[in-house]
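Page 42, continued from yesterday. The earlier attempt failed because a stray header line got pasted into the input along with the sequence. Redoing it now with the clean sequence only.
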Amino acid sequence: MEKLTYRDTRNYAPIDVTKGMDLLTREIVMADAEAPEGYEPIPKCKLCTNFTGTDTFMGTCEASMNEPKFIAYPDMVATTCEMYQAM
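This time it went through. Structure tokens are written below.
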């Protein structure tokens, strides 16, 4: 798996589009900066085995029972998704 950015972890609280707070150190960090080792990833579609990306900003959920498969955004949070399977 590729390195996690702060915006992809549970240990990050956004302040605005580009920055947020590291909830463990209480420091202001850039959202796209690499998160330290051991930070817990937040469930997102792009981190699910059922997600297939069609381009940078769009994809589909292969676990969907609908035809056509429903559209999923890579950064969509999937904490309540029953079909989410971590990579």
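Notes: The mean pLDDT is 93.
Reminder to self: strip header lines before submitting.
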